[in-house]
Amino acid sequence: MFSYFLAALPHFLAYFGSAVALAVVFLFVYSLCTPHREFALIREGNAAAATQLTGTFIGFAIPMAVVIGNSVSIPDMLLWGAVAALVQLTVFVVIARFLFKAVSDKITEGCVASGQFVGGMGIGIGVLQAACMVP
Predict the structure, then answer these.
(1) Is the pTM of this model over 0.85?
(2) Which of 91, 95, 90, 69 lies closest to 80, judged by CA?
(3) pLDDT in tens, 60-79
(4) Which of 34, 51, 33 minimizes the C-alpha distance to 42?
(5) How far apart (Å, rounded) are the C-alpha atoms in residues 6 and 135?
(6) CB 18 within 8 A of CB 24
(7) Which residues are CB-neighbours of 30 under 8 A, at least 6 positions away?
(8) CB-count burial class (<10 Å; 0-12, 13-18, 19+) for 116
């Protein structure tokens, strides 16, 4: 059993490291694409921004977990992870442009309901997306 662990450990580290790197890139790009600055708002104690970004990240992480469990290689995982990231960005764009145009301003103002709505939609879409990523 220990020899199996030693043989599998590099694969775990490669997948985990790649997934964490993709998650960091996703959070960076996502925060650049939204009109409000989530990390600055969170540092100021804005619960709406924290809720929104946490929900969005969970909505990204759920499909990533499914992709990691079903991918055939790290490049395969990274490609499907990029799809998960694009879907989460699209969720925000659809909400901010078509459903609730003032959502970014509301989050900046600290409206927790707005942060919960965006974060919750991200989680919901992430669950649906994860189900669609299983071969």
Answers:
(1) yes
(2) 69
(3) 999 999 999 999 999 999 99
(4) 51
(5) 29
(6) no
(7) 38, 53, 56, 85, 88, 89, 92
(8) middle
